[in-house]
Specification:
76 residues; alpha+beta; two-stranded parallel sheet; flat
Length: 76
């Protein structure tokens, strides 16, 4: 959040509630608040039963996140 300013690019991010390495409350939630402060376009998804480092997240609730991210960026 220290490097966010009004020129920060649109951002897609997601987190899982079982991520013990980088909990969403420590990074994505903080970024979302900062993005709101600077009126940055972003999409933030929270998934349950999702751990850290899921890649494409096949066979999880987050499966398809990459397609959603691409769609988000195309809209920008």
């Amino acid at each position: 959040q220290n490097w966010v300013n009004e020129n920060y690019p649109p951002t897609f991010m997601f987190t899982g509630d079982m991520d013990v390495l980088v909990p969403g409350s420590r990074h994505a939630d903080v970024l979302a608040k900062t993005f709101d402060k600077y009126d940055i376009k972003y999409q933030y998804k929270k998934y349950f039963r999702l751990q850290h480092g899921v890649g494409l997240a096949c066979n999880t609730q987050a499966e398809g996140w990459l397609k959603e991210a691409v769609e988000f960026w195309r809209e920008q």
